């Protein structure tokens, strides 16, 4: 029986700063504010790239008034705290879990790896890494989109005080963002559960290749949309290396479901939030508590919140106002002063 694999499972990575991608050539110029010409409720599908149609839920085109409100909110902020989630990366071709119709929960019966299962079962780890190995070349090649690039520019202009992302795809780093906390870790790094050593995911890919020289050719290959097909039988023959130094179990440096975020990281983010004077949520429904807690803290400290996300969020009642639209479409046309 074939197993369909999805990019979410490729939670693996290499040291972010070691990537050799060229960001400068990718940088988009500021686009003129011309979004108000499309009728509300309709999507200008002819101008929406295929990747967006595949992974981004349909949304109304934002009107000029809402855009001006958001622009005014951001212009008032002098130390903006930004929280981003999967909705920011869907426009780079990485599917999320929860989006209606296009998220993995809606399209498939796939569910993320649970921390306890990963620790308990060598078989689960073997299956996890076999998929991860196959999907890595494509997953690691995703590039930041106009939303990541806009936020990086705002940081350069001194607008963004700190950015917290729940994504593990390294796209903010690839965009050149500096003041950044990856709340759930990063799939480009690998952690040894024995000695705590952290190494680039790219290095592990080489070890996989060396241990499984003919394995890749036998697997089913990558479908056009990035899915990977592997027979159960093939997974059984996949060899997984352990830590070179201590022989410990290797795991992507990513917070799996059922695991908890490091306390010091949470404390650090709370401190950055306390230094901020406005919060922008971009591309997250905030369903997971690890991100939602910062919205509760912002409300306690009376820090104003704006939310940019397609669909409702857990923190809607805490927001001064909210915008339901694609992050790239909105952030790339706003120029906060
Ligand atoms: Zn080790």
TrEMBL record:
It catalyses: N(6)-acetyl-L-lysyl-[protein] + NAD(+) + H2O = 2''-O-acetyl-ADP-D-ribose + nicotinamide + L-lysyl-[protein]. The active site is at 184 (proton acceptor). Binds 1 zinc ion per subunit. Transmembrane segments: none annotated. It comes from the Eukaryota. Its cofactor is Zn(2+). NAD(+) binds at residues 85-105, 166-169, 283-285, 309-311, 327. Its main location: mitochondrion. CDD domains: SIRT4. One of its GO terms (molecular function) is histone deacetylase activity, NAD-dependent. GO terms for cellular component: mitochondrial matrix. Residues 60-337 form the Deacetylase sirtuin-type domain. Pfam families: SIR2. NAD-dependent protein deacylase. Catalyzes the NAD-dependent hydrolysis of acyl groups from lysine residues. HAMAP family: Sirtuin_ClassII. NCBIfam families: PRK05333.1. Belongs to the sirtuin family. Class II subfamily. This is NAD-dependent protein deacylase.
